[in-house]
Amino acid sequence: YKALQTLTRARFYAVQDLTREKQRFANYLFLKCSGLAQDKDIANSSATTIALMERFETVDELAYADLNELTAFIDEKGRNFADPAAKAKAIQTATRNSYRLPITVNNSVNQAMSVCIATMRALEKQIKVLDKQIEQIFAVIPNTLTSVPGIGKVYSAGIIAEIGDINRFQSQASVAKYAGLVWKQHQSGEFEAQNTRLIKSGNRFLRYYLLEAANSVRRCDSEFKRYYDLKYKQVNKYQHKRALALTARKLVRLVFRLLKEGRNYIPPKG
């Protein structure tokens, strides 16, 4: 468990560093191309956006590039756009609405942005290396969590590395408390107030892997998807954050039962 924990925690820190670097890139993107950065339909740190910032030195170069060439470039870098021509037009429209930087400032932003991009790619490479090492060690640990659609080996490893021997926990509630997936003001996993916060104590590594696993499982399992959607629609503030925390709390019950009983997950019918 300790060997696995060392790697899963290293991965946690690498992911946190990558998240901060993406936010830093988003800040530079706003400086260089404010219209593009503020367009909700264009992801700030997507591979396409990064490729565009590397390809075009200034806002005007991108805003007035040949549309056919830009479409081909986006189609090559994005590879998942249903209509790359429409995306190219949207990008140019957003870019033309951007304010222009003085050339010296623009060059400085480009340099800082290139360092940021290199750092993100290095971190992504490190995470892939850690994932492979985690899977190798995890292969010798008996578990049933990978039978749950969407969890996968890395998230399962992160959860098991922090829980260790499940028999040291008396109930699923004690696992939830250990992970910090409990709420203030005498609230439980079925809390109703949309402004109620999670407690600040708990194992942040376990909480992170449970939340990531829950976000993946709710896309793959019909029962968890229905539960997430139900909780999402109950409030009009913090919908995703609240629904995901509750889904993770529901996942704790499943994790505890599977590890305790040593059996595989049986997906619901329909």
Describe the structure.
The chain has helices at 2-32, 34-38, 47-55, 59-63, 67-78, 84-96, 103-138, 152-163, 172-179, 204-220, 222-233, 239-261. By secondary structure, it is an all-alpha fold. α10 packs across α11 and α10 crosses α12. The longest helix is centred in the middle third of the chain and has 36 residues, at 103-138. The two termini are 37 Å apart. The model has no long low-confidence stretch (mean pLDDT 90).
Keywords:
single chain; 270 residues; mainly alpha
Radius of gyration: 22 Å
- Which residue ranges are poorly predicted, with pLDDT under 50 across at least 5 consecutive positions? none
Number of helical regions: 12
Q: Give helix % range.
A: 55-70%
- How many extended strands? 0
Sum this structure up briefly.
The chain has 270 residues and is mainly alpha-helical. The protein has twelve helices and no strands.
